Amino acid sequence: MSKNVLVTGIAGMIGSHLLDALLQKGYNVIGVDNLSYGSLENINHNLSHPNFKFYRVDVTDLDTLKVLGKDISTIIHLAAFKKIGEKDSAMPTFTINGKGTENIFEVAKMWGCKVVFASTSDVYGMSPDLPLNENGDLLLGPSMIRRWSYAVSKLYGEQMAFAYYHDHKVPVVVIRYFGGFSPRSSFAWSGGHVPIFIRAILNNEEVVVHGDGSQTRSMGFVDDLVNGTVLAIESEKAIGEIINIGNDEEMSVIDTAKLIHKVANTGKELKIKFVPMSEVFGKYKDIMRRIPDLTKAKTILGYEPKVRLEKAIQLTIKEIKGS
Asked: Is the peptide bond before 131 cis (omega within 30 degrees of 0)?
């Protein structure tokens, strides 16, 4: 397999760290990003690297993607648009995650590339079957609640992946990422609660908690997500599979805020502001527990998360303070 890869969403949190890892392993990387979420700051240190070329390109630009896909062995499709609140428009979510993803598979079909498609734990919805298993049933809420648009768009991408796999023999691996973070995370809700909490605590601001904070998440450090992604890129056994990638350490949102406060050791009191779910999400019901079954990742990829949540918080705070 050649070491020429194309990464969409290269300037995002996962994309930029994946770039670091791929260059270190000797890959030649073409990265594209429209910079709507990602930041050039995340990849500045690699812009002069001889094995990296960056293009400010939107994944809806099929003609450009066709040119960039020549001589590529694997496309890692990370670029996506995530709708958060009910007041936001859902159209960019469908356009980017729908048409943009279709374009990636068209390019892969054209040039014979493997595709590693980044899906999300959001697709499990409100499934009560824990830990969340790739072969389990999915349970989404009412269709008129627009926040489900992100999960639905990613499920559509998964279905498209297997359509191209079966109908056009495009080798695909679908990764369902569980929440991850790093010092390069977006400090908006699209980046998850941990980065927002870290910034608020370091700035002695109120930590905004949706609901009573009893909802749990399994948050992983970006190093583990990147490691799982590289394993998926390099694995032949993973082709045709859906694989959870993340950390199976489960912690409530309120306990996470307390842990960050302890690690930050600011000497200031922890200030928490509880906001009713309905004020943020309308009739959308937040998913109360989210923990992955990592059996498949361990069996097929040899994957094992290595960074515990407390250590990940320490590393993130240390880098933020040092920057």
From this structure: yes
Crossing angle of helices 253-264/193-202, nearest 10°? 40
By the 8 A CB rule, do 221 and 254 touch?
no
Q: In total, how many domains does the chain have?
A: 1
Quote the domain boundaries for residue 23.
4-180+220-247+292-306
Catalytic sites, residue numbers: 150
pLDDT 10s per residue in the chain (323 long)?
679 999 999 999 999 999 999 999 999 999 999 999 899 999 999 999 999 999 999 999 999 999 999 999 999 999 999 855 556 677 888 999 999 999 999 999 999 999 999 999 999 999 999 999 999 999 998 888 877 889 999 999 999 999 999 999 999 999 999 999 999 987 666 668 999 999 999 999 999 998 999 999 999 999 999 999 999 999 999 999 999 999 999 999 999 999 999 999 999 999 999 998 776 666 666 788 999 999 999 999 999 999 999 999 999 999 988 75
Q: 287 with 126: CB under 8 angstroms?
A: yes
| d(C-alpha 18, C-alpha 44), whole Å | 14
CATH number at residue 151: 3.40.50.720
